[in-house]
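Hi,

I'm pasting everything inline rather than attaching a file, because the server keeps stripping attachments. The sequence lines come first, and each chain or strand is labelled.
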Amino acid sequence: MANDIVFLGIAYTAMIGLIGWFSWQLYVRMSHVNKRLEAVEDLLEKK
Amino acid sequence: MANSKLGISFLISGLGVVGTGLLLGLFYAPSVSSEEWNAPEAYRIIFWHVPAAWTSFITFGMLFVGSLGWMWKRKEWAWKLSGISAELSLLFGLCVVISGPIWGMAEWGVPWDWGDVRLNTYAVLSGLALYLVMSRKSQPDSPEFRDVYSGIGLFGFLLVPLTYFATIAWQVRHPAPIVGPAAESNSVDPIIYQVWLLSFIGFLLLMIGQAILSSQVYEDEIRLEKLQTIIDEMKEG
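And the predicted assembly:
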């Protein structure tokens, strides 16, 4: 029974980790692109 | 920016609904008999495993539409859709491919059965999504690459019906289909079915949110590339 619950815990930890990691990577990529876009737009305005 | 807010709203709503599905699966769904099942608690893995698999079939369907749209009409939206759906197929495919063997280890005593066609076709499907995501990140964007990529995306979709019907034609270990034309009626407890549906709605909302945000990132990256080209031309001129 205890072993059984460990398997359950591992499975959900893995799935939550995967979904969290993917969403976090998406957020980081979005922030990075936004910052670069703002910097390039500022540069173009100055020129 | 409005798209980002919409995407985040879908994503957070989806997380809330799948979280509720998980809690209901853990604490509300009925227990199974310890005489009939070797792992009566680990069975609760199915409350995300099954809806994640349904969602992955939808994302593989989106990959098919995107790949077909590129091969047939050469539309940029189709190329974008195939990229987004390959990433989402990989995410939900991995959820299924990781949680399945953990349950198999608890229930069957082995994580994988190479003689079970359903397991193998689904693993190939997820491997294909991994290949598409990796190749898109590593290869230069060219019409030839897009054709090969879309061809593989189209081939991948053929594995979806094969995976679905595999448990009917060659059932070894994986349980038979529980929804769709090949499902047996009343084969699942209504409460289990309701929790699955709730988690499926949550995964759909999550997937839509991630798709909207990915689409926004793709568009921003293209815009950034265009602006950088203008700056480079200004420097040269």
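Chain B touches chain A through 39 residues (CB under 8 Å).

If the labels don't parse on your end, tell me and I'll reformat.
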